[in-house]
Amino acid sequence: MLTTLVFAAWAAVLFVALGGLRAVGPQQRQLAVAAACLAPSAAAWVLGLAWRALPGLPETAGLRWLVGAALTVVAAGLWSEPAALRRRHWHWRWRWPSEVPLFWAVLILVLAAVVYLVLRIPPYSNDPLEYAAVARLLHAHRSLAVYPVLDSAMSGGLYAPWTHPPGFPLLMSLLMTTSQIDAGFALKWVAALHVVLCIGGLAVLLPKSMRWVAVLSLMATPVYMIGVINGYVEAVRLTALVGVFAACLALWQGPTWSSAARLGMLFGLCGFVHSLGILSTAFFLPVLVLRREGLLRARVGWGLAIVATQVLVLAPDLWRNITLFGVVLGDRPAIWLLPEIGRAEYFREFRTLVTPADKLVRGWLQGFSQVPHFGFTYWVPLLLAAAMLMRRRREVAVRVGVDAQDMLPMVMLATGVIATFYVLAAVLTLTGSVEAIKNSRYMLTVQPLLALVTAWLVFQIADTGSLRRFICAGLVLCSLVPLVYMAERYPGLLTSDLDRRQAYFIHARPEADAVREVDRLTASGRCALLFQQSDYALYGHGCFRSFLDHRFTEVYRETSSVRAVARLRALSISVIVTPSHAMPEIYNTAVGQLLADPSLSRLIWSEGGFSIYELVEPGSARPILGPSVDVVPHPSANLRLDVEWARIAETQQAGGIAAESGLLCVEASGTGLVDLTTVPPAPERAGPGVLLGFVRSNARYVAASSTRGRRVMCVQQLYDQARGVLRVQASAGVRIERISFSWAVWPTRLAKEN
Q1: What pLDDT does residue 686 have?
Q2: Closest Cα to residue 168, out of 152, 148, 196?
Q3: How many helices (H) and strands (E) does the chain have?
Q4: Torsion of CA 320, 326, 329, 331, to 10 degrees
Q5: Helices marked H in 511-641
Q6: Residues 6 or more apart whose Cβ sits within 8 Å of residue 614
Q7: Residue ranges of E strands in 608-747
Q8: With 0-12 CB in 10 A as exposed, 13-18 as middle and 19+ as buried, what is 559?
Q9: Does residue 724 register a pLDDT over 80?
Q10: Contact, 608 vs 510, CB < 8 A?
Q11: Who has greater pLDDT, 20 or 571?
């Protein structure tokens, strides 16, 4: 209840500040959408202002400040309006809910189902869990002095060197304050709230005839809906974009300075959520300036005033980035700047963005090529636009109804923003960077506007109701993909009564198993180095450090694995945890070498690609390596080799002595990637389902690396993992020279060590 009051109060503040009381008709509706979509971000910004000025402010004082400031602004705004205007506004607000069409009734039911799905699935993805851990830290300190998180001693191991403004974690902290919930539940509620605001706001902006197509087009984007269910920042970021878009529709032809100040304030709130929100002005301003009436000099000055206001809203965060990192935007952990790691090459190679064709098809045009991520949401408007152009070339009249005609300014703005976004992404890619195209969630930025354009095109081309129904039916089927995916990934969870923590430890495997194992290993006071900190930061209890921590810079710079171990011990590290994906911080540094050396580290747990090693104590007994056996003794240019892994493991057992682990080495030459996976001889559990089986491979990650020249990649494997088929896959430019395997037999340990 208190949360609802806070957000409603700040929605009212924005509505009054944007001039909503004086607006009429569609403009008033647009400003209402802008106020609703950006109200949570406004409340988080004000809370951050209080925590900056008065760190450690008691929760009750912070809440009084939030609600009191909002109600004061609203009261002052209402009092300043003429009495007749106040009566008209009250009359409009009183009549609107009395008419509830079928569309809104169905949409409410659909959104209720989405909210239930969001809240039932436990937080489990990397980025959301890290944000939730940061939110918990902010809530504990009630201060922004700890953000970004660069002091792992203060944070209990958490390390988050982001240049993103703190809007997203502050939103979770706000919900933790108002609703007394934990960080994981706050993460889910933030996502649930914003998917309702985003889809509902988009529907309110459109004419009645086009609402279903736009809503279904957005919901039929798997990467958006699955991101919302997982609690990614995109749920908030795209909602803020819809709010800014609505405000631009209402204000872009308004008085110069007042409209610039209002739009700049909203762009600032949009940027407060995430760094990509800061860049939203670059997507909007070209079309806004070009289409605004007046002299060019006045229009450019208007645009600069918007940017100046946005910078003013974000000034504390931008200045902090400059002082800490030397840049305004762009994550710059110290270790990513090390040439030894080669972080940029990693993104280009492992996301297949090496050649110009890769960057074009898999990057810039991924809306068309990555159907599992975007469905057919790019193909539908493309085909409709092509049909419209063909009609006009044949001089066939294109029907433009009243709704479609009224939407023209909205469609022109949306199309201009989409085009500008893709032009800027292309320019950045041509400079040699893949930052704009490396992640499908970045390309998701303009998806609500694409849904709006799709709705307009459907009603431009689809002359018959049957064609519209066919398109809507296809979009409905695509929108069910996230539901089916989650039901298959978490069988029985959607109808169970498990709480989020119980659900995580039962269903989020092997990550949850790794958390339990690290808790066990660190119970005696030992500390773990995590190459994926998110799960443990939120669900674990022991001592840990993140691989991003700048204190490990010298470890990555070491050329000797022995000296690297000594540096890790000096930093109190005795356990290392690696994730189920390749990381250049491992395979390009001495860390990878020491993890492949049984005399320096010992693999003690491995599941689903996650592995836990403990550093071998100095002076302790060393393992006995069995004879090395060539699995592939001759060079091979095959892109995929399947080796009978179980048979090799059995024949290489050393003299009847039980071996705990073996050392697998792959020698390759050329330029490209080498991937090692194991395929079990039979499914270890019930079939994953049709959809999950389509997007998931049954192969288990073992190791991967890039190679330029000649590389020997070695990795320890537990005996009970050596079963089924060992699969070695390489890029076209890589030649597999040799694959060898040998068992590591450890001397019997004392009973007290068991």
Answers
A1: 55
A2: 148
A3: 36, 12
A4: -100
A5: 511-522, 534-539, 553-557, 561-570, 584-587, 590-595
A6: 521, 574, 575, 576, 601, 602, 604
A7: 610-615, 624-625, 629-632, 640-644, 661-679, 700-718, 725-730, 734-745
A8: exposed
A9: no
A10: yes
A11: 571
Amino acid at residue number 359: K
- Percent of the chain exceeding pLDDT 70 equals 86
Whether 120 and 493 have beta carbons less than 8 Å apart is answered as: yes
Q: Which residues pair with 680 in a beta bridge?
A: none
Its pTM stands at: 0.90
Q: Do residues 550 and 337 make contact, with C-beta atoms less than 8 angstroms apart?
A: no
Residue 316 tokens read as 């504390």
The first and second tokens of residue 639, run together, are: 């892109």
Strand, coil or helix: what is 467? helix
Residue with tokens 């970021």: 237
- Do residues 116 and 531 lie in contact, with contact meaning Cβ atoms separated by under 8 Å? no
For the chain, the average pLDDT equals 84
Q: What is the pLDDT of residue 462?
A: 59
- Identify the three-state secondary structure at position 718: strand
CB 419 within 8 A of CB 293: no
- Give residue 658's pLDDT: 57
Which range in 161-170, 354-363, 609-618 is most confidently predicted, on average pLDDT?
A: 161-170
The helix-helix angle for 465-479 and 481-489 (nearest 10°) equals 20
In sequence order, what are the residues at sequence separation of 6 or more whose Cβ sits closer than 8 angstroms to the Cβ of residue 190? 40, 168, 171, 172, 175, 231, 235, 236
End-to-end C-alpha distance for the chain, whole angstroms? 53
CA nearest 74: which of 129, 133, 21? 21
How far is the C-alpha of 282 from the C-alpha of 279, rounded, in Å?
5
- Element holding 573 (H helix, E strand): strand 573-578
What does 117-131 look like in DSSP terms, one character per residue? Answer: HHHHSPP-SHHHHHH
Alpha-carbon gap, residue 639 to 95, rounded angstroms: 67
**Are the beta carbons of 706 and 672 closer than 8 angstroms?**
yes
8 A C-beta contact, residue 306 and residue 285:
yes
Phi/psi of residue 605, each to 5°?
-155, 140
CA–CA distance, 596 with 603 (Å, rounded to integer): 9
How far apart are the C-alpha atoms of 533 and 545, rounded to whole Å?
8
Given a contact cutoff of 8 angstroms between Cβ atoms, the answer to whether 575 and 522 are in contact is: yes
**Hey, which residues does 730 pair with through a beta bridge?**
674
Nearest residue to 666 (alpha-carbon basis) of 561, 596, 579, 607: 596
- Within 8 A by CB and 6+ apart from 159, the residues are 149, 150, 152, 533, 545, 546, 548, 549
Residue entry with tokens 């849904």: 451
Residues near 462 by beta carbon (within 8 Å), at least 6 away in sequence? 468, 471
3-state SS assignment for residue 19 = coil
Please list the helix, strand and coil fractions of the chain in percent, rounded to the nearest 5, in that order.
Answer: 60, 15, 25
Burial 226-259, CB ≥16 within 10 A → b, else e: bbbbbbbbbbbbbbbbbbbbbbbbbbbebeeeeb
Enter the DSSP assignment of 360. I
Mean pLDDT over residues 279-292, rounded? 92
* Angular region, 526: left φ>0, alpha ψ -120 to 50, beta rest: beta
56-105 per-position pLDDT tens digit: 878 777 777 777 777 777 776 666 666 555 555 444 443 444 445 788 88
Residue showing tokens 């978490």: 490
| Token digits of residue 126 | 């990397």
Question: CA 97 to CA 105: how far, in whole Å?
Answer: 12
**Chain segment 624-647, per-residue pLDDT in tens:** 666 666 776 656 666 777 777 766
**CA–CA distance, 408 with 460 (Å, rounded to integer):** 11
Question: What is the average pLDDT across 167-192?
Answer: 92
Cα-based distances in Å from 154 to 141, 159, 171, 577: 11, 10, 22, 22
Q: Measure the CA–CA gap between 749 and 566, rounded to whole angstroms.
A: 24
> CA 137 to CA 139: how far, in whole Å?
5
C-alpha–C-alpha distance, residues 416 and 10, integer Å: 30
